[in-house]
Amino acid sequence: MDSPGTPSRASGSGRSSVIDSLRGCTLSGVRIPKEDLKKKITFPDYIRLAMREAIQAKDVDAAAVVQFFEAAHAEGAEPVEPPEFPLVVFINSKSGGRHGPELKARLQELMSEEQVFELSAVKPHEFIQYGLSCLEKFASLGDNCAKESRLKLRIVVAGGDGTVGWVLGCLGELNKQDRLPLPPTGIIPLGTGNDLSRSFGWGGSFPFNWKSAIKRTLDKITTGPIAHLDSWHVLISMPAGEELDIPYSLRTTEETPLDQDLETEGELPEKVSCYQGVFYNYFSIGMDAQVAYGFHNLRNEKPYLAQGPIANKLIYSGYSCKQGWFFTPCSSDPGLRSLKNILRIYAKKVNSSKWEQVPVPSSVRSVVALNLPSYGSGRNPWGNLKPDYLEKRGFVEAQADDGLLEVFGFKHGWHASMVMVELISAKHITQASAIRFELRGGEWTEAYMQMDGEPWKQPMNKEFSTFIEIKRVPHHSLMVRGD
């Protein structure tokens, strides 16, 4: 049975982007007056201006911040009521093709400029470190308006899966710092796949009638029910010396030991480089990540080609064929195509605390560890598995907050295509609460990986292994449901 407010992996997450967009065009629902909405979600002047100054100065004790507080609490100053449903928006204007800049202006019109943060100018961790800290400091000084605003705060992310994951990862740091409550997050989908958005009822694409739809979306985020989401910590440990061009979903970290309950075979390098990050939907290794990497670079080099989700998908499909995902060159040795040549998989399976080695199917060219019911623009490659099959394989029904990842493989582009139209299921490998991937070069000098749509090229060493260890983050992320 599904837990309250949590999407089941077996739910109908494959609804098309076109249907989602048309649904966004309907006139259902009560008309929302702009001024009423603005009053409900906008901070008082002194709070939002003080937060802005704290972020710009990178100092919650900046003189301008202190002045705003003192003026609001000076003798004779009228008490200020907190907003009923305070919101803060992070927007990636580069997402959504031509709509990004217009959407930013529309959001600023519906609340205030100081509550809408362009991610190229203000990073989520900067808001948390300075802006949110400013709000918390005011609350600690006896400001009831700031206290109520902090307790009721909700976050909106306008962007694709990578952008949403970035913001959620930064918000997750509040758990470590014991700065609770954690603000729930709603989504305005601007990316190509938008699988996080689909999974929590916010649709798979940016609506055609977006100017009026944005009012409804903001209003729904203010009162929508809260759902839980598992998040997964990734640790990469690789021989030192190789350059790794990492996406923003990863960051360098001090040398961190791997799980000592699983012994590593063979010699280890004297020095290692370590990277860590968090994902919410999927982590993959192989050909799908190689295609994503090529598409990502092409879009950066020629941004005029990426004019929206439909254009992105057409370019992506073409690039898939070019990379050999569908047509492998005859010169390529069939024995070298499979990930089995470079990859070992270890897992802690369902209801087990012990590491076990899991066989890598010889036909698999891509391995995916999936957390949500939606992958590749709303598909469910794990499939709707029958109870007798689940029992036979030792699996359980998959959900987004069950503490488990579904690990499956794609054989090639044609196999992946059949899976994505849900004619067949992917190659089921395992279901696990923790995973370790071990890669060793051999004939391969590099592999391709991606986390929530952020791909990178992973160099490999012939003498020493690269390890990727995935474990669940102890605290759930909080999501606002839109359906």
TrEMBL record:
* Residues annotated as transmembrane: none
Mention one GO molecular function. Answer: ATP binding
Which reactions is this enzyme annotated as catalysing? a 1,2-diacyl-sn-glycerol + ATP = a 1,2-diacyl-sn-glycero-3-phosphate + ADP + H(+)
Broad class of enzyme this protein falls into: transferase
Q: Where is the signal peptide?
A: none
Enzyme Commission code: 2.7.1.107
What keywords appear on the UniProt entry? ATP-binding, Kinase, Nucleotide-binding, Plant defense, Stress response, Transferase
Q: Name one Pfam family in it.
A: DAGK_acc
Ranges where the DAGKc domain occurs: 82-237
Family classification: Belongs to the eukaryotic diacylglycerol kinase family.
According to its UniProt entry, the function of this protein is described as: Phosphorylates the second messenger diacylglycerol (DAG) to generate phosphatidic acid (PA), another important signaling molecule. PA is required for plant development and responses to abiotic stress and pathogen attack.
Assembly, in brief, is: Monomer.
Protein's UniProt name = Diacylglycerol kinase
> What organism is this sequence from?
Castilleja foliolosa
Its taxonomic placement starts with: Eukaryota, Viridiplantae, Streptophyta, Embryophyta, Tracheophyta
